[in-house]
Amino acid sequence: MEKRKSEDLISIAEAIREFGIGRGTIFKAMDDGVLKRYRRGGDRSVYLSRKAIVAWRSFKEEKGR
Question: Would 40 be classed as within a structural domain?
Fold first, then answer.
Protein backbone atom coordinates (compact mmCIF):
# COMPACT_ATOMS: atom_id res chain seq x y z
CA MET A 1 0.00 0.00 0.00
CA GLU A 2 1.25 3.44 -0.93
CA LYS A 3 2.25 5.74 1.96
CA ARG A 4 0.40 9.07 2.18
CA LYS A 5 0.74 11.98 4.54
CA SER A 6 -2.20 11.82 6.91
CA GLU A 7 -3.07 15.50 6.32
CA ASP A 8 -3.74 14.66 2.65
CA LEU A 9 -6.25 11.95 3.57
CA ILE A 10 -9.89 12.69 4.31
CA SER A 11 -12.82 10.47 5.19
CA ILE A 12 -15.63 9.79 2.75
CA ALA A 13 -17.94 12.00 4.84
CA GLU A 14 -15.42 14.86 4.66
CA ALA A 15 -15.11 14.43 0.88
CA ILE A 16 -18.89 14.61 0.53
CA ARG A 17 -19.05 17.83 2.56
CA GLU A 18 -15.95 19.48 1.13
CA PHE A 19 -16.44 18.66 -2.56
CA GLY A 20 -20.20 18.16 -2.81
CA ILE A 21 -19.74 14.70 -4.32
CA GLY A 22 -22.41 12.06 -3.81
CA ARG A 23 -21.55 8.95 -1.82
CA GLY A 24 -22.48 6.72 -4.78
CA THR A 25 -20.20 8.73 -7.09
CA ILE A 26 -17.29 8.29 -4.67
CA PHE A 27 -17.83 4.53 -4.39
CA LYS A 28 -18.13 4.20 -8.19
CA ALA A 29 -14.84 6.08 -8.61
CA MET A 30 -13.21 3.74 -6.08
CA ASP A 31 -14.66 0.65 -7.78
CA ASP A 32 -13.48 1.95 -11.19
CA GLY A 33 -9.97 2.47 -9.78
CA VAL A 34 -10.12 6.25 -10.25
CA LEU A 35 -9.75 6.92 -6.51
CA LYS A 36 -7.64 4.75 -4.22
CA ARG A 37 -8.87 3.70 -0.77
CA TYR A 38 -6.66 4.04 2.28
CA ARG A 39 -7.11 2.59 5.76
CA ARG A 40 -5.34 3.12 9.04
CA GLY A 41 -4.45 0.16 11.25
CA GLY A 42 -7.19 -0.54 13.78
CA ASP A 43 -9.61 1.82 12.02
CA ARG A 44 -12.41 0.53 9.81
CA SER A 45 -12.93 3.90 8.10
CA VAL A 46 -11.95 4.46 4.48
CA TYR A 47 -9.90 7.52 3.57
CA LEU A 48 -9.28 9.21 0.24
CA SER A 49 -6.50 11.47 -1.00
CA ARG A 50 -7.66 15.09 -1.14
CA LYS A 51 -5.16 15.73 -3.96
CA ALA A 52 -6.54 12.79 -5.96
CA ILE A 53 -10.09 14.12 -5.60
CA VAL A 54 -9.01 17.60 -6.74
CA ALA A 55 -7.22 16.11 -9.76
CA TRP A 56 -10.22 13.90 -10.60
CA ARG A 57 -12.65 16.82 -10.36
CA SER A 58 -10.52 19.26 -12.37
CA PHE A 59 -11.17 20.10 -16.00
CA LYS A 60 -9.62 17.79 -18.54
CA GLU A 61 -9.12 18.17 -22.26
CA GLU A 62 -11.77 16.36 -24.24
CA LYS A 63 -10.68 14.48 -27.34
CA GLY A 64 -12.89 14.42 -30.38
CA ARG A 65 -14.86 16.98 -32.30
Answer: yes
